[in-house]
Amino acid sequence: MAALDMAEPATGLAPPGSPAPRRLGLSQRLGRWDVKVSPYLYISPFFVLFGLTGLFPLVYTAVVSVYEWNLLGGQGEFVGWQNYADVLGQPVFWKSLGNTLSIFLLSAVPQVIIAITLAALLDQNIRHATFWRMGVLVPYVVAPIAVSLIFGRLFADQFGLINELLGSIGIAPVGWHQDRLASHVAIATMVNYRWTGYNALIFLAAMQAVPRDLYEAATIDGAGPVRQFFSVTVPQIRSTIMFVIITASIGGLQVFDEPLLFDASGLGGADRQWMTTVLYMYDVAWGNQRDFGRAAAVAWMLFVLILAIGIGNFLLSRRIASSAPRPSKVSRSVTRRMLADARSAGGTRTTTTTTKSTTTTSTTDGRTS
Asked: Which long-range contacts (CB under 8 A, 24 or more apart) does 108-111 make?
């Protein structure tokens, strides 16, 4: 019987009778481009604005910091790291850095504690909850200048309301504008007044996202409100707590309005006892020195300090963000034994299946024959 040779169609040629390939229209091409390009267009405004208002000033400040740049004369000669050395050699810079860290600790730590406590209270079933929740945000709406002026009068050394209240209970008046620690406490109080309510609402939003089943289970187990707060609420909002800590750290190291308006001169006191690093940078650029190169060097050193503290907070948050226990490790001997048992079980099943298949085949052949 002759074998029939089937002729295959040539490669690249359409079989006879098939329709010609359809060309994409303009609208279909635009649709494909829209799917590919539109996501990048949606997120591009943020990066464009960040490049104009964030990245470019950062790079330009780095360029200014290595030049002799005067307010009146403009750009001068290239000096390299000389501006950084001059700034580090000024005792006022180190005093301002110590003041900044002191005010930061006095403001950030109580701020987070009070904010999370307020959020826990607002998360309860209270009457007129919306009114109280919006009320804690009122200090954030007030202008920083108004807050500084009001608290400047409250913490006045003479005839101030705080000193009058302290004198009524037999405590000697405090020199809020003379003592270094007292001035730091006053400025930290202004910072806490403005930002505590804002952070409380962030904590409140995180607490309302916690499943209520966890609280019901804790109540059944006999846990009280305090135990539920530390055992259920805090572990569930740890990521939010670390976010607030990082943002409070950045804002606390950049505090400027409160120390500037705490007195009439705006230079951080007669002995610079509450001058912060940002206020010192402002004084270097627009004060007596009027040296933009040194001011840019101060800005970059402050940026490096904030970046280091931010990285430290990030690494700390990675370690404590997850409260889930780590899985227990299995020894190698146990793993080998489990693998051997699995292989032996698999071999037994294969042998049994093969035997059953052979028996079935023999029975079928016998019936056929």
From this structure: 108/245, 108/248, 108/249, 108/252, 110/188, 110/192, 111/191, 111/192, 111/195, 111/196, 111/199, 111/248
Q: Which residues does 369 contact at the CB level (< 8 Å), separation at least 6?
A: none
Number of other CB atoms surrounding residue 331 within 10 Å: 8
Query: DSSP letter string over 225-282?
Result: HHHHIIIIIHHHTHHHHHHHHHHHHHHHHT--HHHHSSSSS-SSSTT-TT--HHHHHH
The residue with greater pLDDT, 54 or 8, is 54
Beta bridge partners of residue 326, listed in sequence order: none
Contact yes or no for 292/64 (Cβ under 8 A): yes
Strand partners, 291: 70
**pTM of the entire predicted model:** 0.72
List pLDDT tens digits, range 152-195. 889 988 888 898 898 888 888 888 988 899 999 999 999 999 89
CA distance 59 to 69: 15
Q: Is 340 helix (H, G, I), strand (E, B) or coil?
A: helix
Whether the Cβ atoms of residue 198 and residue 133 lie closer than 8 Å to each other: no
